[in-house]
Amino acid sequence: MELQIQSSTTLNHDHDHPNSTPSKLPLSIFDLFALNFHTAYLLFFNPPTSPNTNIIQALSKTLTHFPTLSGHLDTTTNPSHPCILLSSDTSGVLLIQASTTSKLEDLSPFDPSPEFNILHPCLQNPHHLLQVQLTRFSCGGLALGVTVHHRVADGHSMSSFFTAWGDMLRSHFIKHLPLFDRSLFIPRRPPRCEYDHRGFEFLPVPPDHTGFPESPINVEQKKITNIKLHYSSEFITTKLKAPMREKHTSFEALLAHLWRKISVARRLETNQKTQVSISVNGRRRLRPPVTDEFFGNLVLAAYPSATVGEILEGGVEVAARLIRNAVKKIGDDYFRSVIDFRALHEEEELVPVFEALGNVLSPNLEADSWLGLGFERVNMGGAGGGLRACMPAWIPAEGIIIFVPTVSGDDGGVDVVVTLFEEHVRVLKEISHSLD
C-alpha cells in the first residue's frame, strides 16, 4: 500500500465557543499510573463518509470541549506535580491528510500488519498530545489513525471523544459533554494506604516482589508478531462457559483460555510463575460511581498469578476464578487507597511500574479490553460512514492481549489481538481453539 501525504498542519480548537476549563489541569494519580507515551488507534469507515473539510471542521469544534487533547504536557516546571497546559504556544493538534490508490477492501480482514503504520502519525517523539491522520481510499473509504499521549486519556475517554466527534459532524451537537473534575479524587482525612502500591502501581519494586523481572528484557521489534484471533459467541458460550460450575463473564472465560494456551505456546515450565496484568476501569468501582463522561485516566491493574502447572492442570475454570478474584479486589477501597497514596507522597516524582519493563513480558501477560467502550458506535457521517473495523496499531511488545469488538460479521464474537514471538505464534495458531 502506497501513501501520498497531501497536507500536514497544526489544528487548534474552534475559539468561537469558549469553555470554562482552567488554564492548566494537574495530572491525577491515575494519569501518573498511565503509560508515559503515545498509543495509536485505527478506525476504518465504509463509504460514503463526509468530506474531509466537514470532518476537520467538526474536529475543531469538538476540541473546544476536549481542551486537554490540544494542550501541552508540562513535566519540567514542577516534576512532582505535572500538568496539562491548556493554552500555550505549543498547543494544537497535528492533522495529516493523505490518500492511497488502494481500496478499503484490500485491507480485509484487517489483520494486524506493520504496513498499517503508515495510516497513523509517527509515534516517535511526537510534538503534540493528539495526532490525527485522515487517509482516503480510492473507493471512498476512510482510515482514521489517531495517536494520543496515554497520560491525557484512557481507552474509555478516547472512545467518548471519537463518539463526540462523530456527533458533532452529523448533528452539530455533542450529546455527552466531557467532565474534567479532579476534585473527584480528593484523599480521605487523614489519608491512609490500606494496600501496598510499591511494585503494583509505582516504583520501586520491593526485593521480594516476584511479579516483575529483576531487569527489563528487550529484543528487536522485528522478532515480535501481532496476530488476530476470532472467537465466535457460540465458542465462548458453549465451549468455554457452559462446562463451568461457576458463572463467569465472557472476558474471564476467554482470557483464562488464552492464558493457558499462550503458556503452552511459549513452552513454559510447569513450575514457572506467570501473571496477567488486567486493566480495571474505576468508573463503576468507585463509590459513588464516576460518570462515564469523566475524561482522563481512571484505570488500575489487577494481577492474577499462578504457576503454569496450576492453570494447565486446573483447567479454564481455575484460571477464570483467579482472574475474577483478582479483579474483584480492585474495588472502591483499593482506588481510594491509591488516591491516599498520592497524598502521602505528594512531593515525590512517582514512576509507574511499567517503566521498569522491557518489550518482552514473558512469562507474564498484559490484557486490555475495548469491549463495552462504544467504539462500534463511532460514525463519520455520510449516508453510510459506518465503522468497518477498529483495532490497535502494530504493537512492538511481546505478551500483549487486547480484546476488540467484532464490528463486521453476524456471530457476535470477539476479536483478540495477541503479540508474541514468531515461533510462539505458529504454535498458538494451531492450538488457539483446542479445548484440551
From TrEMBL:
Signal peptide: none annotated. This is Uncharacterized protein. GO terms for molecular function: acyltransferase activity, transferring groups other than amino-acyl groups. The keyword Iron-sulfur does not apply. InterPro entries: CAT-like_dom_sf, Plant_Fungal_Acyltransferase. Residues 1-11 have a biased composition (Polar residues). Belongs to the plant acyltransferase family. Residues 1-20 are annotated as: Disordered. PANTHER family: OS12G0134700 PROTEIN, TRICHOTHECENE 3-O-ACETYLTRANSFERASE. It holds the Pfam family Transferase. Keywords: Acyltransferase, Transferase.
